[in-house]
Design brief:
Number of domains: 1
Shape: globular
Radius of gyration: 24 Å
Number of strands: 9
CATH superfamily: Bacterial extracellular solute-binding protein, family 7
Oligomer: single chain
CATH architecture: 3-Layer(aba) Sandwich
Largest sheet: 9 strands, mixed
CATH topology: D-Maltodextrin-Binding Protein, domain 2
Strand content: 15-25%
Amino acid sequence: MLDCSRRSFLVGAAALSATAVLGRPALAQAATKLRFGHPHPEVDAFHQAGLKFGELVSQKTNGQVTVEVYANGALGNDPTMIASVRGGTLDICLTGNPFFTGLAPKLNVLDLPYLFRDRDHVAKVLDGPIGESLRADLEASNLKALSTWEVGWRNLTNNRRAVETPADVKGLKIRTTPNPAHIQAFKLLGAVPTPMAFTELFTALEMGSIDGQENPVTLIQNAKFFEVQKYLTLTRHAFTTAPLVMNKPKFDALPEDQRMAIVEAAREAAVIQRTMNSEGEKIAVEALRADGMEVVDQIDVEPFRGLVADAVKAEYVTKFGGEVVDQITAAA
């Protein structure tokens, strides 16, 4: 049997222990760690802005949310990462808009050829009500689109000949995204469009199973496609956006202040990433020339536009109506 003083000591110690635990909930709460995957090289703006996004999230949440960024498709190719985020085995991913259009077909509008006038036009669409409405369409697929980044202006490379007119594209086997607008446009140009994931592209070019591909000059440089492609033509035939998406149940489960901080960080990082790409374009073309590519930088785009722009837009309008196309065209 315990004497009275011993019993009092034990009861007091237990009370102090309970008070200590209950009195420090913030210390006991573990930080939320988010894994973020993308398909581009570490030197690309996807990765550099992704790291900045992680810094901003940590700052805005006082370290309660951290982000680990994985480049080069380390967590899967484009479709695999999107499926993983939908299923909750990956928290966040970033890849080109064309890989999302199977889930939200109206998003295909952003990939219509020769749709955007310039980067200011792009920003007004993506950061305004049009962009918000299009991103909301992904929520039915278990995805919360935090903001929209960019891949950039698409240009054509190949190994067979310099492309100066639409006739030069005929017969080329060109890797495209799986996006209906991209596939239709290259069919109209007489090419053989061959959709595949970005992570598979370098090997396909190296093995000669395709003749060429189309991507922004910054990505052509950063992915070292100059090692496996000879000709570059600055067609700027489309602009590719890139939704930054998070597993929606994971996002919804976070406290409101953390959700707001993540969205705010995503939007700030989007501006940073687009600026990185814009500045990178200025030096990428000369760098690719220095790396041995033959560059066609003076090209009349009107024959290309005439073959693809109206026809691809008409196909989209037939399926989804012309309202969002008109809104984008009219964006000031």
